[in-house]
Design brief:
This protein is mostly beta strands and 161 residues long. The chain is built from 1 helix and 9 strands, in the order βββββββββα. The strands form 3 sheets. A 4-stranded antiparallel β-sheet has the order 1-2-3-4, with no helix packed on it. The longest helix is centred in the last third of the chain and has 7 residues, at 150-156. Residues 98-102 have low confidence and may be disordered.
């Protein structure tokens, strides 16, 4: 076991404290890393490898993915078919400050780390920390499992796929 395993290349370390990285396969077979960082632009960093192990692109900040300096999750929902577009789901706290002013979400209020899964029936599961003790996000009060379907998600996203 593990006799053919080889380490891949390192991603260029271009932003402040790059960590807590998640990977997802893109439609063309390349792999995209979604990277936590503490850059002052407050956006998630993205790096891509055509084979998922070597020659990672220089990380770039994604303009639509906010970075509140928290672990996020990304998962492929489905690949493109003749009937439907390919979908990738992303979860993290939708805020840039810890002041209690949060954007729209399925669980409003203080939140932190999250994880995503897809059920056999296509349902979407999001496990997340929420409700900070004394309004502090890193002192979790609850862990919540959100369960919803793709139609709800698209409606909550303004009809965008």
């Amino acid at each position: 076991l593990g006799k053919t395993w080889k380490a891949g290349d390192l991603v260029p370390f271009d932003y402040v404290n790059m960590s807590e990285t998640v990977a997802v396969e893109l439609e063309n077979g390349s792999v995209m890393l979604n990277i936590r960082n503490e850059d002052r632009d407050h956006r998630r960093a993205i790096s891509i490898s055509e084979d998922g192990a070597r020659k990672w692109s220089a990380p770039k900040l994604h303009p639509e993915l906010k970075e509140p300096v928290c672990m996020a999750n990304i998962i492929r929902y489905n690949f493109k078919t003749d009937d439907q577009p390919g979908r990738i789901l992303f979860s993290n706290p939708d805020n840039l400050v810890y002041s209690g002013k949060f954007g729209p979400s399925y669980e409003p209020g203080i939140s932190a780390y999250s994880d995503l899964a897809i059920g056999n029936d296509g349902s979407i599961l999001c496990l997340c920390e929420r409700g900070g003790v004394n309004d502090v996000m890193w002192d979790t009060r609850y862990v919540t499992l959100g369960w919803f379907n793709l139609e709800w998600l698209e409606k909550a996203n303004g009809g965008q796929q």
